[in-house]
Amino acid sequence: MSLLEINNLNKAFGGLSAVLNFNFHMEKGELVGLIGPNGAGKTTVFNLITGVYKPDKGSIRFSDKNIQGLAPYTICARGIARTFQNIRLFNDLSVLDNVKIAAHKDVPYGLLTAIMRTPSFFKGEAIIEQQAMKYLEIFKLADKRDELARNLPYGEQRRLEIARALATKPTLLILDEPAAGMNPYETNELMELIAWIRKDFDLTILLIEHDMSLVMGVCERIYVLDYGSIIAEGVPQEIRNNKKVIEAYLGEEVE
Amino acid sequence: MQEYKNNWAKFCGEVLLLAAFFTLVQYLITTGLLNQYYQINLNSMFINIILSVSLNLINGFTGQLSLGHAGFMAVGAYSSVILTQMMGQPFIAGLIGACLVSALAGFIIGVPTLRLKGDYLAIATLAFGEIIRVILQNIDYVNGPAGILGITKMTTWPWLFGATVLTILVIVNLINSSYGRAIISVREDEIASELMGVNTTSYKVLAFVIGAMFAGLAGALYAHYFYIIKPETFNFLKSFDILVMVVLGGLGSTTGAVIAAVFITALTAALQSFPAIRMILYALILIIVMIFRPQGLMGNKELSRQTFGKIWSGRK
């Protein structure tokens, strides 16, 4: 049984087929990369999985249950969390609050308790804060807990986004270009971090990335997407030498 | 444990401060030092505080532009008057009834309209506010456009003070909880919030219902102080008045909403004999604030002892 299984997925915007007969599967514990030229439909696939878009056709099964067409917050509750290609933090809130919001779905006290300020409210808040701090410490953001998210440098904003996604306690983590805009040193650090959280949190990870050194370095299996369909699938070594992939990226050879 | 003790000390301090303020005003009223004119303005001031703090929950914290707050005030005013004057219930039943009926109205209006965003939501809430007014104008049971006259005056200083404290307490406690953070995340980034597991629609409706409920409470207090209510009182200009307070105080700042409500009420009272100039001044103040401080007087910050502490340590 696959953790995530997508069959014959289709999504069109007007006359443009963004995703066309897309088939995909992931086993528990895998780290899979999804690559493809610009405009191939990678982010659309992510948006379909996480419920931002509703698919026109096809099925998405997660942990053996259909999730296509569900609301994003329900899909999050089922155990899928993601980050965004263009960072989407809660900019005017503190770093700590950003992570705390992700923990809201398991809030340990009720609305009336919150308004009445009973002792269980303070206990619950202490638990939420302690857990949020745990994620901030992993991502080396603990000393910036009270800063506004918008004031963090770019690399730290990316890290905070991953910390926030982890705070929803997912089984599947989806990373949309986590290394975009990072320098080689930061990318390296990120690779190590991804490998580490995967082991420590027993995660399955799916990532989109343009940085080939990162993709080839950490991914066990790679799917290549072009014009909304999968054109190749395999271990990094196979993908590197696949003729179709080279054509998709560089164009056909002239006879 | 230390934190608990600090919380207790803080809590006791706040209670003492509020009790002192309450007693002082009560003393001034009973001894007649605060004459009728000041009492009326004090009354308007506290009703305006309830209105602007509750609208700020919807507009400032949830980020949903609502222009129909006067409509909910009308629902509260009318339902409380029906309860106390026509059905002979006690004042407290009128207040609770006003809260419940306005909350229900907020729910009925919120569910369909909160699917809309930005300008569309503003127009839809504006329209709903007007619909409430027009409906009231056409119900003979409440005398249509003529309104209800001769309402027994029941809103006294303790009721007013208690209602205001309750409103602020509920909204501040809500905002400073996990539920409040979820509400604020909707304003910050609705898509990210939804993908982090927050059911954004239900939190928008929650904020709208609580906001409407307290607007209804304000309406009930208003009706039982000023002897007369008519649909025309709750037109969109009234909604606009409340919105001005919220924007002036700073969207997303409860202390800002309180300060602005106090300021606007005082300004209105000072300019009572020049109603025309009042509207011009309103507009001027808004323009000046928008040019020099577009985030409002307080921005989204709160005034607290910590702020004073910061200013103090900054000076040193």
Q: Can you lay out the helices and strands and say which pair or pack?
A:
The complex is a heterodimer of chains A (about 260) and B (about 325).
Chain A: E1 4-13, E2 16-26, E3 31-35, H1 42-50, E4 57-62, E5 65-66, H2 72-78, E6 80-82, H3 95-102, H4 111-116, H5 119-138, H6 154-166, E7 172-176, H7 184-200, E8 204-208, H8 212-218, E9 221-226, E10 229-234, H9 236-240, H10 243-250
Parallel strand pairs in A: 3-8, 3-9, 6-7, 7-8
Antiparallel strand pairs in A: 1-2, 1-4, 4-5, 9-10
Helix pairs in contact in A: 3-5, 3-6
Chain B: H1 2-30, H2 36-61, H3 69-86, H4 91-113, H5 118-137, H6 157-175, H7 178-188, H8 190-195, H9 200-223, H10 236-249, H11 254-270, H12 275-292, H13 305-315
Descriptive report:
- The complex is a heterodimer of chains A (255) and B (316).
- Chain A is an alpha/beta fold and 255 residues long.
- Chain A folds into two domains: 4-79 and 170-250, Rossmann fold; 90-153, no CATH class.
- Chain A has helices at residues 42-50, 72-78, 95-102, 111-116, 119-138, 154-166, 184-200, 212-218, 236-240, 243-250; strands at residues 4-13, 16-26, 31-35, 57-62, 65-66, 80-82, 172-176, 204-208, 221-226, 229-234.
- In chain A, a hairpin with a 2-residue loop joins strand 1 and strand 2.
- In chain A, helix 3 (95-102) crosses helix 5 and helix 3 packs parallel to helix 6 (154-166).
- Chain A is globular, with a radius of gyration of 19 Å.
- Chain B is mostly helical and 316 residues long.
- Chain B starts with a helix and ends with a helix.
- The radius of gyration of chain B is 20 Å and the shape is globular.
- The longest helix of chain B is centred in the first third of the chain and has 29 residues, at 2-30.
- The A-B interface holds A 50-52, 71-73, 76-77, 81-82, 84, 88-93, 97, 100-105, 107, 109, 111, 114-117, 121-122, 124-125, 128, 164-165, 168 and B 4, 7, 170, 173-174, 177-182, 184-185, 188-189, 191-200, 206, 300.
